[in-house]
Amino acid sequence: MSQQAFRQDTEQQHPSVPTHVDAGDVGYSKSLKPRHVSMIAIGGAIGTGLFLGAGGRLASAGPSLAVAYTVCGVFAFLVVRALGELVLHRPSSGAFVSYAREFMGEKGAFVAGWMYVLNWATTGIADITAVATYTHFWHMFTTTPQWVIALIALAVVLAVNLISVKIFGEMEFWFAIVKVGALLLFMCIGIYLLATRQPIDDHIPGPSLITEGGGIFPHGMLPMLLIVQGVVFAYAGVEMVGVTAGETSNPEKLIPKAINSIMWRVALFYVGSVILLVMLMPSGAYSASESPFVTVLSHVGIPGGDGVMNLVVMTAALSSLNSGLYSTGRILRSMAMAGSAPKFTAAMSRTQVPYGGILLTTSICVLGVGLNYVVPGQAFEIVLNFAAIGVLSTWSMIMICHLLFWRKAKAGLATRPGYRLPGSPYTEIVTILFLVGVLVLMWFDEGPGRITILALPLVVVGLIVGWFCVRSRVEAIRKAAVGTEDGSDTD
Predict the structure, then answer these.
(1) Which of 133, 178, 245, 428 could form a disulfide with 251 if both were Cys (CB 3.0 to 4.6 A apart)?
(2) Measured between alpha carbons, how far is 142 from 48 in angstroms, rounded to an integer?
(3) How many helices (H) and strands (E) does the chain have?
(4) How far apart are CA 319 and CA 126, in angstroms?
């Protein structure tokens, strides 16, 4: 169906629907149930960044990691709250890419879409790297090359995504159940150890471990500031709840409920877990090579506890990869229907799965398999910083779109729904300034952070070249959709 035909059909059947529509929304089933959406929201808020990344950050920043998680968590909630308002304005499987097209034009949609793909493609590489790292925890797999495990993990999750959205929803539902259940169980064990003051190695659990280790900022403020980009990456995925709107039957009711629950989950699972970890063991006992939860359980002496938790954190990585393939498949289809992504990414299977976009993201993740072959020890940190750039770009685009939507509503050209981002337009401006600040902080990280900043011009050049490659096709599709009488230029 062409965009013009879809627009006419929508206006005839639903006169109240906004006139801006996304042809990429056509063809999806409404198979995601309320429990799926709710657990996808949880899964997006709890991922590899917490289960694996927290170990290295605790070692470098100590208890101040809880402060970083709190601050970044507030901004993550504001971003997803802004997206929620846009979803209620017009639900779309293209999510913020579709809104960028509406408020910023095709150039904005092109940048938003491809930076999101960069985000999830590099996150996918981090996820399969994490799975391979976790698997080597068991001695029976230590002789298996890391790249082989990474390839197997990618193939399994790809197969799940290609079957149907219902299977994806079920898999993500159970992944989230496992993650939440394991974290709650760990917190119960940790609270018991604190209450009974049972020694862990030579240390007595309690707040004294924080004061004896140098306080909240044992190494000063700078280490905490330098890990902020990694903490932002830990929250990557919270925006995925907006992508599900195109495949739910009642997004107006489900999305606000799912988004509102994110804040307390952040407080409980991220901030609460970190505070518990630093009171159980000195922050110097943790490392980047092992999940901090596994570290604690391996020292407590619970038979098989560390192995079970290692399996859980591996589940978290698979869940993140699962979500990345799902969301980029939908985003790429929305872009392809507008001409800004390869035509094959618009392909939809008989089970209503946009397999073209999923396969494109998977092919990029295969490069990550090669990275695990060449530099297995540094693969995770290398891609984490590039993923952070994608997250910063995606969140900035969401806030810019919302700011433009607010201005349009202020001028009487649009109506804001009852579910709103509080504090507009100041909330958007402060959030954007925070994200720019994180980018600046990456420069002061003399390791992967600065390398990523130095690589940014290459990303910009790639976007410019890519835009000029697709510009004529985008213009042709746009004119076909709105009529040749509209002679406005996409440039």
Answers:
(1) 245
(2) 21
(3) 21, 0
(4) 12
